[in-house]
Amino acid sequence: MDGTVTTKSLRPHRHDVILAVVGLLAGLVMWSLGIYSSSNRHLLPEWAALVPLAVLSAMELLRRSMPSVALAVGTVGVIANEFTVGSLTTVLIFTDLMYAAVVYGGPAMARRLPVSTGLITVAVTIGFLAWLRTPEALLIGVVTGLVSFAPALTGATLRNHREAAVAAQLRAEQTALLAEMDRSQAVAAERARMARELHDMVANHLSAIAIHSTAALSIDRADTSRDALGVIRENSVQGLAEMRRLIGLLRDAGAEQEAVAMPSLDGVEALLGRARTNGSASGLDFVLHEDRPPGERVPAPVELAAYRIVQESLTNALKHAAPGTVTVRVARADGQLTVAVESPYGERPGPRAPGSGAGLIGMRERVELLGGKFSAGRTGELWQVRATLPADEKAVEA
To answer: Per-residue pLDDT tens for 258-279?
Structure first.
């Protein structure tokens, strides 16, 4: 497995093969025509210029896979080229190796080469000026810069553009991912809100229907069946109205319909009236203790949450409470709205409606979304549900 990966990584790129072949052929043609870069040098025979040409052409095959090795060998080759009659193609191939080393090499090499070649260019220019003391020395510095510094700078510019493009693409992908996560969270939050609304609005009526239909089936008396059917009909009509209201909200989210359909704490007394009717057969009575300054309103989300908590607590009392008095307390003090519902805890006679536990979860979610506190559990002989909600408009907005 490792051998296969290494072989693939060292395999020359198709473009590199083309560059190597074209460079070698161009150098051979120029040499055969007698076109040399330094024809006045006779340290070595003319054919010796073909050796650096062949070596640098071979290094073109490694310009992507092993750029540092290709540049090191190419540097030795271009220096050796100066001791022969010289091949301009060899110098041009070296500039491409310098460019490739910056583009395809490691980050450290990409940072160092433009700086080092720039310093070398300056040093060569100053050195030849001091040695030759002629204007032609400047030409040597220019050629050195064109051969080394210019391709390194070009490669660094291209690499920076590529890295910037990759970074921009990564940021775009991250932004798209975050947007998708936000959308998914918004959808999940909306689904949870709809589930709470549906449960709180309908569970109360369906629980009463289940209890009274079970009573009508278990007690074979005409008056009992007639009373149970009356309660069943009343709760069916009210439940249907609630369902229609919810469907209307889902189809049309206009502000006018939302304002008309929003329940408030003013409807708690009506909730207790329905609970008295539904719970009379189970020996339950319902009492409201309200301690709120007259005329003072609380934020709409808080009022809706308090109403739903009372509604769900009364539904749970109808399902599970022992005979006795269910007490609902609503109070406002020190910027807090407190809702507490206490019901007798113990065994109860007669039919009971099953529970799923979703009501407690929904109440807790409502309170936590508004930054309040919620508790539910047994306290002595009572089952108590208690919620403390912020009654200040600024606290809710924050």
So the answer is: 444 467 788 888 888 888 887 7
CA distance 246 to 261: 9
Q: Reduced to 3 states, what is the DSSP secondary structure of residue 293?
A: coil
Whether the Cβ atoms of residue 274 and residue 238 lie closer than 8 Å to each other: yes
Q: Which of 58, 43, 46, 50 is nearest to 12 (CA)?
A: 58
**Measured between alpha carbons, how far is residue 98 from residues 21, 24, 145, 154, 306 in Å?**
18, 18, 12, 10, 74
Residues whose CB is less than 8 angstroms from the CB of residue 8 and which lie 6 or more positions away in sequence, other chains included: none
Summarised one tens digit per residue, pLDDT across range 136-194 is: 778 888 888 888 899 999 999 999 999 899 888 888 888 888 788 778 777 777 777 77
CATH of domain 183-397: 3.30.565.10
Which span out of 181-185, 293-297, 306-310 was modeled with the highest average pLDDT?
Answer: 306-310
Those residues whose C-beta lies under 8 Å from the C-beta of residue 386, and which sit 6 or more positions away, are 338, 339, 340, 341, 374, 375, 376
**pTM for the complete prediction?**
0.50
The domains of the chain are located at 2-176, 183-397
**Lowest-confidence segment of 149-153, 180-184, 332-336, 375-379 by average pLDDT:** 180-184
Tokens, residue 40 = 């006045």
- Per-residue burial over 71-104, b if 16 or more Cβ lie within 10 Å, else e, is bebbbebbebbeebbbbebbbebbbbbbbbbbbb
Place of tokens 């979703």: 358
- C-alpha span between 67 and 100 (Å, rounded): 7
